[in-house]
Design brief:
Blueprint: H1 12-18, E1 21-24, H2 43-46, H3 53-78, E2 83-87, E3 92-97, E4 100-113, E5 118-121, H4 143-152, H5 155-158, E6 161-163, H6 167-181, E7 185-194, E8 203-219
Antiparallel strand pairs: 1-2, 2-3, 3-4, 4-5, 4-8, 5-6, 7-8
Helix pairs in contact: 3-6
Length: about 230
């Protein structure tokens, strides 16, 4: 595995179990539930001036298509949706909207901790030779990006966990990943979790970014959502 969550304490295991199925509720037209992720600064500024010029240019070049991708995702699937279910275990994101049921493949891309300004790429479960098309199915959402970073000597794509100057920097990483994977877009889930090693009851906001792809649209089941998995409470 490229990423070893060595900082995770036993206390966090029950919390990960609670994330197996997360319900993202949204009022009609509340597209802001998934932010458009439009940076207000160029990549070099978003990363606090820490990037090589070449890497900053690469990230800047990915942002225009990312913004368009997010706008389409929000307008065509999320705005006005009646129900959104993120199933961490099965790696799917389901949206009910206008009598249609859309199921995306949802790969956890990375995690952002706003208070500590820390970003962690999701673990790559295997390290396949991704040049072999038959083995690409073993990759997680971040695998192609990590491989690209390794092959082109881009440190920010290879470091498992790092400090970022701002959340906008995380958006740039998501933008490049979506471009490399030709994904439908990026989804962010927001939760509040206990801090490992912190004082009793201490919590921190955690944002997880998911890569959405391969949407499958069918008619929504009649009679409600009786077969939909119950959300974690």
């Amino acid at each position: 595995m490229l990423l070893n969550h060595g900082f995770a304490q036993p206390l966090q295991q029950p919390l990960r179990a609670l994330l197996l199925t997360t319900l993202i509720s949204a009022l009609p037209l509340a597209a802001s539930a998934n932010p458009p992720m439009v940076p207000q600064h160029d990549a070099q500024t978003a990363f606090g001036g820490a990037l090589p010029t070449r890497d900053a240019a690469l990230l800047d070049a990915s942002i225009a298509s990312h913004i368009e991708r997010q706008q389409l995702l929000n307008s065509q699937h999320l705005a006005g949706s009646q129900l959104r279910t993120l199933d961490f275990f099965n790696k799917t994101f389901t949206v009910l909207r206008g009598g249609k049921r859309t199921v995306f493949d949802a790969e956890l891309l990375g995690t952002w901790w706003p208070e500590s300004k820390r970003w962690a790429w999701e673990a790559v479960e295997r390290v396949p030779d991704l040049k072999d098309p038959k083995r690409k199915s073993f990759a997680t959402g971040s695998a192609l990006t990590r491989l690209y970073g390794r092959e082109h000597g881009i440190d920010i794509l290879q470091i498992d966990t790092t400090q970022l100057a701002s959340e906008e920097a995380a958006w740039y990483l998501c933008a490049l990943t979506a471009q490399l994977n030709q994904a439908s877009g990026v989804l962010v889930s927001i939760s509040s979790e206990l801090v490992a090693g912190g004082s009793e009851g201490q919590k921190a906001v955690v944002k997880r970014y998911y890569l959405l792809s391969h949407p499958k649209v069918t008619d929504a089941p009649t009679g409600g959502t009786s077969k939909t998995q119950s959300p974690a409470r």
